[in-house]
Structure formats: C-alpha cells, structure tokens
Fold these 4 entries.
Entry 1:
Amino acid sequence: MKIHLTSVFVDDQEKALRFYTDVLGFEKKHDVPAGTDRWLTVVSPEDPDGVELLLEPSGHPAVQPYRTALVRDGIPATSFAVDDVRAEFARLRELGVTFTQEPLETGAVTTAVLDDTCGNLIQIMDGE
C-alpha cells in the first residue's frame, strides 16, 4: 500500500493553483471540471507520477471550523520535504511568502511554517 493522493482544503482553487505552482514550484497534474469546482491536483516536478496533492474546495460546513482551529493553534495542514529549509525559506520570503514559524532546528530536522494564502499553514522540513 502507498499514498497516491492527499489534499488540502483551499478557499479559491485558481488562487491556490497559482500559489502552489508559481510560488512553491509544483506542477499541475489534473484539472477536470467537477460541477462548480474542479478536480485540481499538483505534483512535484521531481516526481510527476508520484503523490498528487488535491487542491480541494473548502465548501463543506465542517471545513472552516476545522481549518480555523488548526491555524489558531499554529498546526500545519500538511508538510512538504525540501532539500534545505533555510534556503527555501529565503527563496520564498523573497517572493513575499508569509511565515508563521521561521526555520527551527529540532534535532536532525529543520522546519518552517508558511501561510499558503488559501486558508492553511504548511510546514516545510528537511533532515531525517
């Protein structure tokens, strides 16, 4: 068994697509109309046949209280691996990305947490 698809709830799929591709560097994989929304996924350019991230509409009534609680408590919705958190932090900060946690070393792992502009905190991490 392996993970094929995971998702983050987003307020605006088009805005999320721009952020996740133009800023974070993912590539669009699928973009299929689904009623008033889209089945919209992105992948890492390093692994285009790997795990897909679904930019899922946040319209369900349970989503907003859930995401509000996570953000209020500083809990990331998901985590992405990078080669060097400090370098990625600098690159993203230069692009105007807001971080709620600057790079923090916790043993062999360094993490940082950013705001994806679509209602989520996202952790980036390097190390083991």
Entry 2:
Amino acid sequence: MSTPSAAPSVLFVCVHNAGRSQMAAAFLTHLGGDRVQVRSAGSAPADTVNPAVVEAMREAGIDISAEIPKVLTTEAVRSSDVVITMGCGDVCPAFPGKRYLDWRLEDPADQGVAAVRPIRDEIERRVRGLIGELLREPV
C-alpha cells in the first residue's frame, strides 16, 4: 500500500482553468482517490468555473461547483510528476524528470452543456487510461 507522499502527482493546465483542466482534475480525484495527488491551474485563470462544465460534471455524478480557478505557479509544476496541458497553448516551465503531455481537446468555453458532454466523456476516457499507466491497474 502506498503512502500519500509516494502517490504520483498530476497537474492539469489550461489557460483559464475553468473547463477542461477542472474536469480532468475532478475525474482523476474521483477515480484515483488518495492514490494520486491532483492539481489544476491556468496561466490566466477565470473568475469562475464554466457553468456548463459544472452541469456536465454533475450529470456524471461529480460536483465541482465549489471549485475555483487557480493560477499556474512554477512550484505547482516542480512538485508534479506529470504535467498535462489541455490543448490550449499554455506553456509550462520545464523541469528535468517530469513527464509532459498535451491532450488536444475542444474548448468548452461559451458552449452549452450538450457540447460539453463529449469533451467530458473524452477527458474521462483519457483520465482512466492515465490512472492505468500511473498505478498499473485498470480503472
């Protein structure tokens, strides 16, 4: 059994930290539990999480209504094992020994919940695959 300090840490990054990165962080937290440390942030965080994203996640059984977009810091990158940008062109500081991925996903900004659902479902699929890689077990 791993201790919390031994848990792999993942940082999801998107410019506004109001949509894709919030969904990814919520799925990883929900599915990975305390086996994974999860962060999300953005270079220009919005004031609130996209309401259509909140609703789409509620439909999936995950409440992110209390989440607040956070600013990307060098320390967040430094303390993460895996840094995943969400196809939004954000650039993260690079540190040796980190794994960097870019998940190219449609932007849910200014879209209704119907348009967010397929983005949500793709993020969940990718997060499940990531958990399988990180923890070497299927989810």
Entry 3:
Amino acid sequence: MSLMMRLTTALSGRKIGTDRFGNTYYESRRDYLQYGRKRRWVMFAGAPDPTSVPPEWHGWLHHTAATAMSEEKRYPWIAEHRPNPTGTALAWHPAGHDYSGGRRQVTTGDYEAWTPGS
C-alpha cells in the first residue's frame, strides 16, 4: 500500500470494519461527487486480490446492502470463502491437460462427421 493511499484514507475516510481475512473496509466522510452516496473501498491485508473479499462484505462494498452481513451467523452447509485459484497450483485442469497427466479418453467411435449434402 502506497504512502499516498494511506494518507488519503486517513484524511478522507473512516474505518467501517475488518473481515476475518484481515481486510479493512472504509467509507468516505462526504458524498462522492454528484452521486449522492459515499465512496467505499477496501485495504487488503496481503496482496491486492479482489477475490479475497468475502461475500458478507461484497454487497456492502458495491452498495447492494446498507451494512455488511454478519460473519458470525454461518450455517454448516456454507463453504468457506476462498480466493480465485486461477493461475495457481490449485486451479482446475480438465482431463487431457498437461498438468493433469496429458491423457484424454479415446473417442468411442459413435461419432460421424457431418458432410455437406449428406
């Protein structure tokens, strides 16, 4: 995080809360330009990765909800939020991809190619 971002946040924003990943959420003190609402932003705990914002805060950040949802009320069937794994070792690779062994299932022989006029 740059020095300018820290200074801007300290002067024009007020802290709203922190999520379980350590990301801190801010809201501007005044309405943003002519939109009639306050600007909202997040200061990431680690690398700036937008997929690390949990769903409880995503709605608040995009002005869908007036307040952030409670992180305390969790049902057992709700999976834990995890950032997007694209480009990492945890990314999904289809069968036949080089990272999955590079072997695909042989076609079964029931395929007939289409030819014009047939």
Entry 4:
Amino acid sequence: MSSQVRAGEKLPPLEIPITRTLIVAGAIASRDYQDVHHDAELARQKGSPDIFMNILTTNGLVGRYITDHFGPTAVLRKVAIRLGAPNYPGDTMVLTGAVEEVTEETDAATATATVKVVGANGIGRHVTGTVTVSLPSGGAR
C-alpha cells in the first residue's frame, strides 16, 4: 500500500460552491435546526451577515473529500476538525490536503494514512484538521 500512498502526497483541490441550498440541506440532514443555518433575518439579528454552514455539514464534506480521493474501499477512522471563518452563501470553499503519514498494518493487508486537510473560502480558513483513513492493500482510487 505504501507504494501507492506516500507521506507528502498532495490531494488535488476540491472546489465546493457554498449555496443557500447546501447550507440549509446540510443543517436539515444533520437535524440542526438552529435558525442561523436557515433564516437569514434571524441570523442577522444575532450578528451574522447571513446564514452559515454548520460543523456537521463541514465534517461530511471533509469526509467526502477524503473518500472521493482514496476510493470506495477507504474507511474513515477519525475525523478531527476545527472551524474558523464561516462559510456563507455565494462563496466557494476549496479543500486541499496532504498525506502526513502512512503506516502499514501488521497484517500487511491494510495501511493507515493520516491526511491534513484545509478548507479555505474568500474570508479565510473555514476548516482545518486531520483525517485518519484505512486503505486496503491494492485499494482503488
């Protein structure tokens, strides 16, 4: 596996348009009914210029970024993220990543990769974190 995935490998960027639909649908799908994720007027009353994406949607997009790159046999083991600048409608978040470490498992049938991920938008870094993913030996990408 390490012959396929190497420390230092950069993942291609993924551009995600931040739409109102994405923000609201992500909040509904994760059962997050906080008004700041679906009601622009109430969000403004609370000091935000508009609705903004919730952390569970961001977490899902980070997971998608990793599994899209490593393929359907990749298994997310740990996703540790921290939010920064909000994702507002009309912006674009660009996810980038780099493999920090690859460890062969003792059974030699799998490897574990640790990937540093950053998602930036027009006002700064929206998300930073690391993802630990298990990859079968000879796994598809």
